[in-house]
Design brief:
Blueprint (H helix, E strand, L loop, with lengths): L1 H30 L4 E17 L2 E16 L5 H11 L7 H5 L14 H29 L4 E9 L4 H4 L7 E5 L2 E2 L3 H10 L4 E8 L2 E9 L1 E4 L5 E4 L2 E6 L3 H28 L10 H14 L1 H19 L7 H14 L5 H34 L1
Antiparallel strand pairs: 1-2, 3-10, 4-5, 4-6, 6-7, 8-9
Pfam families: Peptidase_M50 (PF02163)
GO biological process, one term: proteolysis
Family: Belongs to the peptidase M50B family.
Length: 372
């Protein structure tokens, strides 16, 4: 039963993230007058397809991806769709002839540079929209009020109160990083060393810098040391406007986590052995589903925002890399030669594929170790 729940939950999460991403490319391409040959959810053999206004809509067997095949786009899916479209067929008559797909729009390479940039960025944008909508639902469904960043009370004798923090302070930043939601404070404090941090607060209408605020610690039965916050914060009334603001700030919070994690990985603060691949993600989805629908939706929000950010990285195999090529074309008036784009994209795909294999290997090792 747990396997079935994990499978269905993973299908839901991956399907939602992929479908909304590809819909972004599809919708903006249509709005910009670009011809869309196929909009597919899933990969592999088609289970169902239908042609409407010159676009084939497909549902395919393997729920591990999806794509939008644009006319004139240099991608295997688009070229395959164009090849199938251009394959000569016997002439049809009567009702069958009336059902022949009509061609709508222009090839992608004939669209203006700014239109192509919008098409490339639209997928990631829709991932952020999905994350925002999911977070609105989650925040609205919770019984507890929204957590603010304004300190309500300092615990008696707490070290943080002795070293700078006061009741009524509104936390603006920790260690120079702006706090959008209360969880930003927790995340930055977890990353601190020596259980101390620099705070920027709003006190009596003025911005005050509090260097080297220190926190109490306690040791558990296993000998591990933990930080004690030593303060509580106010709650915020759950009005529609406050829910929307909290959801928007939470998108920024999740984005900050993802960006910071990538930066830590590059700087060596985090080990590459901590990377998770598809196996690890599916395992996490299964665990979240076992806890309840709210945990599953929260993980969906994190994953879709993660996908949006990663796709905007200036990496040749990703949408962000394509946007960089288009920026160069827009500035210079000359497109980056297709041979160069193709070579960089192939190399980038090889690197990404290698990282995915390595991450999957780590996932399997963690599963085996956990089983033992």
């Amino acid at each position: 039963m747990s396997f079935i729940i994990t499978f269905l939950a993973a299908l839901f999460v991956f399907g939602a993230v992929i479908a909304i991403h590809e819909f972004g490319h599809f919708a903006v391409a249509k709005l910009c007058g670009v011809r869309v040959n196929e909009f597919s959810i899933g990969m592999g053999p088609a289970l169902w397809h239908n042609i409407y206004h010159g676009t084939q809509y497909s549902l395919r067997l393997l729920p591990v991806g999806g794509y939008v095949a644009l006319e004139g786009e240099e991608s295997p899916e688009s070229q395959q769709a164009e090849t199938l479209r251009d394959t000569p067929e016997p002439p049809l008559t009567g009702e069958m002839a009336a059902r022949q797909p009509e061609r709508f729009g222009k090839p992608l390479n004939e669209a203006a540079v700014w239109q192509r940039m919008l098409v490339m960025a639209a997928g990631a944008f829709m991932n952020f929209v999905l994350g925002f909508v999911v977070l609105v639902l989650l925040i609205s469904a919770r019984n507890e009020p929204i957590t603010s960043r304004v300190i309500y009370k300092i615990n008696e004798g707490a070290l943080c109160g002795q070293t700078g923090l006061e009741a009524g302070d509104k936390v603006l930043a920790v260690n120079g990083r702006r706090c959008f939601v209360a969880n930003d404070m927790i995340y930055e404090l977890v990353r601190t060393e020596q259980y101390r941090a620099d705070f920027t607060v709003l006190r009596d209408g003025k911005t005050v810098e509090l260097p080297d605020v220190q926190f109490d610690t306690w040791v558990d039965d296993s000998g591990e040391t933990h930080m004690s916050l030593g303060f509580t914060v106010y709650g915020i009334q759950k009005t529609p406007l406050n829910v929307l603001k909290e959801a928007g700030n939470s998108v920024l919070y999740y984005g900050r986590i993802i960006y910071t994690s990538l930066a830590d990985l590059v700087r060596g603060r985090e080990s590459i052995n901590d990377l998770s691949g598809p196996v690890g993600i599916v395992t996490a989805i299964g665990q979240a589903a076992s806890y309840g629908w709210q945990d599953l939706l929260e993980l969906l929000a994190l994953i879709t925002i993660n996908v949006g950010i990663l796709n905007l990285l200036p990496f040749p195999a990703l949408d962000g890399g394509k946007i960089v090529f288009l920026l160069i074309e827009g500035i210079t008036g000359y497109a980056v030669p297709e041979k160069i784009q193709g070579s960089l994209t192939v190399a980038a795909f090889a690197l990404l594929f290698g990282l995915m294999i390595f991450a999957t290997y780590n996932d399997i090792l963690r599963l085996i170790t956990g089983a033992i």
